[in-house]
Amino acid sequence: MDKKEMNEHILVCLSPSPSNTKIIEAASKMVEAFNANFTALYVKTTKEPSKEDRQRLNDNVKFAQDRGATIESVFGDDVAYQIIEYSRLSHVTKIVVGKSRVKGLSNIKPTLVDKLIAQAGNVDVYIIPDTEDTRPAPKEKEPIDLNALKKDLLKSFVILSITTLISYLFFEIGFADSSIMMVYILGVMIIAMITQGKAYSLITSALIVVIFNFLFTEPRFTLKAYASEYPVTFLVMFFAALITGTLAGKLKDFASESTRNSYRTKILFDTNQLLQNSTSSEEIVTIMAKQIQKLLSKSVIVYIKENGKIDRPYVFMYNKEDPSKYLNDHEFKVAQWVCEHNKQAGAFTVRFTDSSCLHLSIRVNQQGYGVVSIPIDEPIEPFENSILLSILGESALAMENYRNIKDKEESIILAENERTRANMLRSISHDLRTPLTSILGNASNLLSNAHLFDEKTKSQIYLDIYDESWWLINLVENLLSVTKIEDGDMHLNFSYELINEIVEEALKHVDRHKIEHKISIHSEDDLMLVKVDSRLMVQVFVNLIDNAIKYTPKGSHIDVFILKKEEEVLIRVQDDGPGISDEDKEHIFERYYQKANTLADSRRSLGLGLALCRSIINAHGHEIVVKDNVPHGTIFEFTLSSKEVVLDA
């Protein structure tokens, strides 16, 4: 395939003609032959199509979409100019258009094909001849809206009366006839702007000639005119008023269509901006549905695709409409078909025509992310349909980006978990090996050389084995607790216990180096009950006091304060050691985090103790915090729920 073929862009013109499908089919074959981009363009004019024409146009749009065409729409009464301008701006290389062989007024004024050929320039125009009569069928007379007719007649009468009064005032003042004519022409322009239909401009143009002749020409108050130039004046006045009114009406139509197009384009722009800031799949669905409602003023039902199938719907009803008639098994079946085939179906399509909803796929290329169902009772206009498809495309792209980000985050978390697990295994291996090596060495010495050691040496060896064994027990206990927390298997057995007894029990299990520190308990009341899991709370105090022993020098003071605070008990474990840096404070409760300080016993720590304390305190419904102890040292502080002790008389 050469470079030229790859850059071809073929445009086919859409119309309500019954033979338009033949033109589209010919264009699609050219697209396959040239491997080209394919666009189907509809030029909307100020002339309102009939209901039958709208239905045929919608069928032709669907036919073009099925052939892979991108549907575009522009607005303007000069159809040939709009097609050529779009082709120039979109780099179209070939235009495919049909031409009927039925004789008509083509010998009097140039046809659309003639205009395209004359203005095409470097764009090739391919004409598909048609032997069928493509003239539209006569329009069925639509019922007249009497209320609208009365309102427009009243508006015309009021404006005409006002312009006549102003003109009569100008005549009495002595203004020239030309000034009076301009007042009437202005009135015709205003009437054209505020009424519907061209008939009012035509009728008003004729009336102002009659009124001008009756009121302001000699002889006055008759329909005669003495001056010979008056017939020409009347004729010029009529056509000037008619042309001015017609142009004003067209200007109103163009302004109205431009406003609608601007609103639709703003919806698409806002959709893009909102989707860029979306942070969840549900938010994307909500934004998409709300924007579609703004565009179509219809209810919207969204199904998200999960594991190849759609699940529960997200329902966004318009004007409190009852959703039950759109949430039945048949509509769900159609939505499931759309999800599987990535094609539209339902109302006003060629598939499942008995459906009450139009079902559209939310997709990027061939990757579908869900289905949008829109209850409709008439075909969606081509331009609105184009905006709708763009909203769905933007939403699908946002869903794809969100899922990619989510998958990436999950991969990062998984990699981080693997890295943490590997670091933990290395730490556990090192920390288990050190005390086990000491225990093994001391036990070997006792077995081989016990008779050579005096009693003091043996006692020291026994003490070392005891210390290392107790340290291993605490390590294993913490590991088991952390595992339970990670697996969600931690079950608390709450009961009311005396807090002083819990602290005293914890002191029996702390590191034997506690004798090298001054540990004190300060309690406001010896009979304070707290609602806790006593076994886990003992572990909290053991970890906090052990942590203070490890990170403070010999002779340091470790104080446990138990204070009454309304319906709670405030616990404060503090020391007067070197303290904790601000950097460490931010991470000290993180699992496997190890302080940079040198430990008092030179043994590494897994960084589980404080993390476990926080998890246990949180499970009790409270928080633990770390503070500085002035002038130096550290304070760990938390609260527990309390209960008054009632003593029997």
Indicate the topology:
Blueprint: H1 3-6, E1 9-13, H2 20-34, E2 37-44, H3 51-66, E3 70-75, H4 79-89, E4 94-100, H5 112-119, E5 124-130, H6 146-173, H7 177-194, H8 199-216, H9 230-276, H10 281-296, E6 300-306, E7 309-316, H11 329-341, E8 345-346, E9 357-364, E10 367-375, H12 382-449, H13 455-487, E11 495-498, H14 499-507, E12 518-523, E13 529-532, H15 534-550, E14 557-565, E15 568-575, H16 582-585, H17 609-619, E16 624-628, E17 634-643
Parallel strand pairs: 1-2, 1-4, 2-3, 4-5, 12-14
Antiparallel strand pairs: 6-7, 6-10, 8-9, 9-10, 11-13, 13-17, 14-15, 15-17, 16-17
Helix pairs in contact: 4-5, 6-7, 6-8, 7-8, 7-9, 8-9, 9-10, 9-12, 10-12, 12-13, 14-15, 15-17
Transmembrane segments: 153-171, 199-216, 228-248
Catalytic activity: ATP + protein L-histidine = ADP + protein N-phospho-L-histidine
Membrane topology: Multi-pass membrane protein
Structural features, described:
The structure is a single chain. With 649 residues, the chain is an alpha/beta fold. 52% of the residues lie in helices and 17% in strands. It folds into 4 domains: 3-130, HUPs (Rossmann fold); 146-259, no CATH class; 278-409, 2-Layer Sandwich (Beta-Lactamase), CATH 3.30.450; 475-643, Histidine kinase-like ATPase, C-terminal domain (Heat Shock Protein 90, 2-Layer Sandwich), CATH 3.30.565.10. The strands form 3 sheets. Strands 11, 12, 13, 14, 15, 16 and 17 form a 7-stranded mixed beta sheet that branches. α14 (499-507) packs across α15. The chain is elongated, with a radius of gyration of 44 Å. It holds the Pfam family HATPase_c. GO terms for molecular function: ATP binding; phosphorelay sensor kinase activity. Its main location: membrane. Residues 427-644 form the Histidine kinase domain.
